[in-house]
Amino acid sequence: MTRPHVVVVGAYGSAGVAVADRLVEEDVRLTLVDDGDPGGGLCILRGCMPSKEVLSAAAHRFQARHDHRLPDDPPGIDMERVVETKDGHVADFASHRRGAVERMAERGNVEFLHETARFVDDRTVAVGDRRIEPDYVVVATGSTVNVPDLPGIDDVEYETSADVLDATGYAGESGIVMGFGYVGTELVPYLSEAAGLSLTVVEHDARPIDEADPAYGDALLDIYEENFDVRILRETYEERLEPTDDGGVRLHTDREDGAATVEADHLFLFTGRRPNLDGLGLANAGIDPGPGWVGDTMQAADDDHTFVVGDANSREPILHVAKEEGHLAAGNVLRHHRGEGLVPYENVHHHVIFTGLGVYPYARVGHSKESAEAAGIDHVAVTREARDDGVFRTKDAPEGLATLVVDPDDGTVLGYQGLHYHADVMAKTAQLAVEMELDVREVPDRAYHPTTPEILDGLFRQATDALEGDG
Q: How far is Cα 96 from Cα 114, in angstroms, rounded to an integer?
């Protein structure tokens, strides 16, 4: 059997590196392509790593301001230092990523090309001035900012999440936020706390966090409106934008009350991301990136020699998912070459959003109560308020709640959901319980007081009581 030649387009990103890392030890000829300058991938350069950096600075101020035991004025935030510190760390992270790719390129079976790639036809990829005819292509080009097609948007200035991460201050006092998903829920309190902006947020639904049970979206709204200078317009849609005479922005919405028109000094677009496929020439390869264009095996529906991983496939744009998809796709390339059956990607839902500046993060692993109901799964769900566990009060962070979903017949843990202090820390424990299909009645009831995982022990006890007919 001949050695397959695999081209990875987007080799600096998390998904691309995962593909290369899996294939580099195999009997494969590997060509890694990336035109990033500097290279490093979205998460490192403009995504989850730098965003957590800046959130941490605002979280320190929020906790000082929020604590009635600290009566003096809260400290200010030097946004220039925040950005300088962030840039230094990002440079280190990106250098480490590039170093990993460069070390792979030193191997005899690997070549790295710092160029832009595009399909010429279904079996040829142009990389710079070269034409390459590989056996397989793995597309790992990530995502780009989604700018909504809204009348007037080309007439106003706006900032994306990348701009916010580099901002060292803002003139003016107010802002309009379009987009209240993962990015918006993380950056809205940052702009309020660090930049001192008064914000009006447009929320299309009755509450944020689509994957959460309604109580969680409602709790998040309460936390934001009570603790930050934020007004959230629920069930509202944007209609058109226009500049104001003083250099600001005016947004017209579909509301029938006095909030139909909103004016502010700044406009922030946190309207999500779309697959970064522009210029890739997919049509030349006969590939249509429409609904369902990438299957569970990460193969393009129109070409079983093209695999698409990470944000580029629009399936689930989450860092850890991108890595898992990359490893799986690499294995499937090898299986396909050997004529073996391919393995589908199976994902247990596992997300963390650093809402509330990361002081009140949201986490979900496995099923929520609502998703279990939608799937027709018989279940028992128990919920605790964070303030019911004394440890949260002693840490002066009593807001939020947590839910455990279990199977009523065998006690299997089906899911965990939390919006509270240290909810992100619970995610790994919840993952083990869900993916190992543990019986909640057999999970050790042992917290080390005063630690916040005590809320998990409370949920375990409540679920056990419910199964035994005591709850």
A: 17
